[in-house]
Structure formats: C-alpha cells, structure tokens
Design a protein that fits this description.
The structure holds two protein chains of two kinds. Chain A is an all-alpha fold. Chain A folds into two domains: 3-47; 53-283, MetI-like (MetI-like fold, Orthogonal Bundle). Chain A has eleven helices and no strands. Chain A has helices at residues 3-44, 50-54, 67-98, 103-117, 120-134, 141-165, 169-177, 182-211, 214-218, 239-247, 252-283. The longest helix of chain A is centred in the first third of the chain and has 42 residues, at 3-44. By secondary structure, chain B is an alpha/beta fold. In chain B, 36% of the residues lie in helices and 25% in strands. Chain B has a six-stranded mixed sheet with strand order 6-7-8-3-9-10, sandwiched between helices. Chain B has a four-stranded antiparallel sheet with strand order 2-1-4-5, with helices on one face. In chain B, helix 6 (154-167) runs parallel beside helix 7. At the A-B interface, helix 7 and helix 8 of A face helix 2, helix 3 and helix 6 of B.
Chain lengths: 285, 255
C-alpha cells in the first residue's frame, strides 16, 4: 500500500467510526424517550377517560380528574402568550431594525440571551416579589401569566431576531429603493417572510411554558382546586402542579392518575409542536 | 448662446467615512440630465458607495459619516427638508443581484405605487403594464402576472427589478452592476434596455465590464482608492485618457 492508499483507508475508517458514533447517540436518545413513554403509558392508560379529563381533583383517586389543571394551564398559557408575543416581537424588531448595533446594543443582546438561560425558579421569585406582592395581584392567574410571559419572552425575542436577520438584505434594499418607509418594509416584507420561523419560535416557547412548574409553585398556585378560573383574578392550578401533587402521594392509585395526566400533557405538547410544523410548511411554500 | 443647464446630480467636496475608513475623498462631479454615466474602477474603490449616496442607501450602515454636498436638481438631499422616501422614489435603483420580493410579478411592480399611497386600481394596472413594457419584459410575462416573481429566470428577474424601479416614475436610475450576475444574453438585453431608457432617464451605472461602459455610457468616471481620478466623455476616457492610472486600468494593466 502506498501512502495515498493508507491515507484513504484511515479517512474511511474515521468516516465510518463517526457515523457509528452518531447512530449510537441517536439510538440512545430515542430509546430513553421510548422507555419513558412506555413506562408512563403502562401506568396511566387505563385511567384515561372522558371522566378523568372532565373531573375535578378528589380525595378518592378513582373519581379524581384534571379539568382544573387543564383549564388553568390553558388560560395561563394563552394569557402569557398574549402578553409576551407582541412585546417580544416588538422588542426584536426594534433591536434588529431600529436600534444601533453599538456597545449598548451588544450589551442588551448578550443579556437577553442570558435571560433565556436563567433558571425558571428565579423567574418564580421575581414574579412572587413583583406581581404577587408589589402589584398585589395575589396568587391569581394574571400573576402566573405575567411571570410566565417574562420567562418565555427572551425565547421569543431571540427566535424573532434570528428570523428577521435571516431575511436577505436585498429585500430591505429593494423596498427602501422604491420609497418605502422602515415600517412599511417591516410590515410588508420582513414580518411576512420571517413569519413561519417566528411562529415556530413562539410555539416552542409556549410548549416550554406548558411544562414549567417551578415558577408557578413559587408564586403560590394552588395544588387542590375544585373550580374553573372565572376571571384573570381567579386562583388556579396547572397540569404539571396537579401531576406533582399526585406523584407525592403514597397511594399507588394516585401515581396512576399522575401517569395519565402526563399522557395528556405530552399529547398537548405534541399537538402544539405538530401545529408549528404544519403552519411552517404551509407558509414557507 | 448656451444656456447653462443645471446638472441633475452633483456632489461638491464630498467626503465619506465608514468609521475610520475614508472611503470617498473630496469628490466633486456633475451629471447632466438624460446622460448615462459609467462609474468604473477596481473593487473597493468607492464607486458603489458613491452610487448609493444618491438614494441614501448608505444610511442603513452604522457609522457612516458624510461631509459635503449631494445635490439633486439643485437641492441637497441630505441637508434640505426633502424626505428620504421622496428622494428614493425620484432616484430609483437596480441592484447587482436581482432582488424581487417573494410575491407575484404584478405585486412586485405595483409595490412602489402601493407604498406611495396610490390605490386607484386602473392606474396601477396601467402603470404595471407600462413599466413592464419599458423594461422589455411585458411580452414574456403578460399572461403570468399572478405567478411568483421567484419563478422567473435571473435575467427576467433583473428586468422585473428595473420595471419595479420605473413604476414610481423616477427621473434618475442608479444601477449597481446590473448585468454582472447574468449570462451574456440576458446581459445584452439589459444593455439594450439601458440604451432605450436613457432617452427618458438620467442613468448612473457601476460596471466592471469595460466594453459595457464604453458601449452604453456618454461619460465615464474612473475611481481609484476613494478618489475620482478622471471624469470625461466616454470616448475620451477610452481612446485618450489624460491620466496614466486610467490608461493602465482600462487596458487591464491593474485592477
């Protein structure tokens, strides 16, 4: 074998080794996830029923249900999205299109990226101090939503900025060159073109909000709720708190309830993610 | 008796800095109405930057500083109270890379009218047709106005961009290497088009193609390292340049 052949052989070996490593990594991730799902389904699927979904929690596990948590999660997340999406997109547009890319801009950019990585319990403490105590909102659904909107806003800002940044500079120039104003350029071109990507970011942020538990426990969302939220000032619970509550009980039957509730939560998240994918494919045509 | 015609575009003692980079050095130049002026010079010499002065496209870049006068029909487009959108409407631009919007052919041409507040449907339809005809694209797309502009070929896209620029009825057209990203046939079509357009418009064209400059322009300006080296009738520049650097550049000895 000459040195070229030896080199080629080495490269081929490297190539195959890496491929195998990548496949093992993938399998590991998928199998762990599958085991988790199988485990949950085994425990919970026989508890899944219309009665389970439409009942309030109870001391008797066989009649307990998740309607309070489901409704709480739904309202809390919807309100949080309503609050954080306009502000987040607005902030991103400002940073990307209006703000100067100077030191201050860089500083703000780094801080927003950091905010996206702050542990959620910290947002819970902020929400407790700011909204619950200072604004006197008590442990209301509004306080929960405001806290959650702070948590997901950096994610939305970052996703929107990336989406707007990805629009080719030529589009901006073309629009300005025929006499469009900045706002017309943003409204007619940048937002429509980046919309699918922004939407994906928003839905991923919302999926995160649905799963978050810690900040809402911190601000004092209840664990035992036998009513539906009537207004934004109602007390509330959310699905993950309900799950947490059931898991911490000693009875096996409650654990089964928890598993069933997890299935509902996963289904909910999967549904949102599928909507994100469908919308993205539809609009990016 | 000669009447001294006011130049359509003019810069006086113009200096432009990108941060600490002195990109345009003390440039004074007059461009008469309905002239085609070619800006030539090696990459990075400032000719594109100079072109983009006139529709204030450099405004978008952070850290640009402009000193001196940039006049359009005698009015300073930076210092007078002319709105930047108005300047850009009167001084259209065609870019190096065709940049149609991801919308239909019709919407692309009509866009400039829309942002300038025109909503008369009939007028818009007529203007779109007129502009596409002026850009020599009408025959190829008249049955497909609702088709996406992105489905057109590169050369067609560039003519669409020219139509889009013409639709708002500018008096000046800035062209930044409009044919450099195109195949020779499309490129020839754009050149023919420039020939037609110069009857009605003042045209400033940046080009790296010496033959193209010689063919389409009345006057040629040679830029080098941010300075205007020579500005004269195109014939003079190509046959008998006064400066050695111009001579060297057009004969391909550097650049």
């Amino acid at each position: 074998m000459n040195s070229f052949e030896i080199h080629a052989l080495k490269q081929r070996t490297k190539n195959i080794t890496f491929q195998v490593a990548a496949i093992i990594g993938l399998l590991f991730a998928v199998i762990v996830l599958l085991l988790l799902l199988i485990n949950v389904f085994e425990d919970g699927w026989q508890r899944l029923s219309l009665q389970f979904i439409s009942s309030y929690p109870s001391r008797k596990p066989e009649v307990a249900g998740i309607i309070a948590g489901l409704a709480g999660s739904f309202f809390m997340v919807s309100l949080a999205a309503l609050l954080s999406v306009p502000v987040g997109i607005g902030a991103a547009i400002y940073l990307e299109e209006y703000g100067k890319k100077n030191r201050l801009g860089k500083f703000i950019e780094i801080n927003i990226a950091n905010l996206a990585g702050v542990p959620s319990i910290v947002y819970g403490l902020l929400g407790l101090g700011l909204f619950v105590r200072w604004f006197n909102l008590d442990r209301s659904i509004l306080a929960g939503s405001l806290t959650m909107s702070l948590l997901i806003m950096p994610v939305i800002i970052i996703a929107t900025r990336e989406a707007i940044k990805a629009v080719p500079q030529g589009i901006r120039e073309a629009s300005y060159a025929v006499g469009a104003t900045k706002w017309q350029t943003i409204w007619h071109h940048l937002l429509p073109i980046s919309f699918p990507t922004i939407l994906t970011g928003i839905i991923l942020a919302i999926s995160r909000a649905i799963g978050e538990t810690a900040p809402l426990i911190t601000i004092g969302a209840l664990t035992y709720v036998t009513f539906l939220p009537k207004s934004i000032h109602s007390e509330f619970t959310i699905l993950p708190i309900q799950i947490f509550n059931w898991v911490s009980r000693p009875q096996q039957a409650f654990h089964e309830n928890a598993a069933a509730a997890i299935i509902v939560l996963i289904a909910f998240t999967l549904m949102l993610n599928s909507i994100a994918i469908i919308l993205r494919n539809k609009f990016s045509k | 008796m000669t009447i001294r015609q006011m130049p359509a575009l003019e810069t006086r003692n113009l200096n432009l800095h990108y941060g600490t980079n002195h990109a345009l050095k003390n440039i004074s130049l007059c461009i008469s109405e309905n002239f085609v002026v070619a800006l030539i010079g090696p990459s990075g010499c400032g000719k594109s930057t100079y072109l983009r002065l006139f529709n204030r496209m450099n405004d978008m870049i952070d850290g640009v500083r402009i000193d001196g006068d940039v006049l359009f029909n005698g009015k300073d487009i930076y210092k007078s109270n002319l709105r930047v959108e108005h300047v850009r409407k009167k001084i259209g631009m065609v870019f190096q890379k065709p940049n149609p919007f991801p919308k239909t052919i019709f919407e692309n041409v009509a866009y400039g009218l829309k942002v300038n507040g025109i909503s008369n449907k009939k007028f818009i339809e007529e203007t779109v047709e007129k502009s596409l005809k002026q850009a020599a694209l009408w025959e190829e797309v008249k049955d497909n106005l609702k088709k996406s502009a992105l489905a057109l070929s590169g050369g067609q896209q560039q003519r669409l961009c020219i139509a889009r620029a013409l639709a708002v009825e500018p008096s000046v057209l800035l062209m930044d290497e409009p044919a450099s990203a195109l195949d020779p046939l499309s490129s020839a079509k754009i050149e023919e088009l420039i020939y037609e357009l110069k009857k009605k418009y003042t045209i400033l064209i940046v080009t790296h193609n010496m033959q193209q400059a010689a063919r389409v322009s009345d006057k040629t300006a040679f830029f080098y390292l941010g300075q205007l080296i020579e500005y004269n009738d195109t014939k003079q520049i190509f046959i008998n340049p006064k400066e050695e650097r111009t001579q060297n550049y057009i004969t391909g000895r550097f650049g």
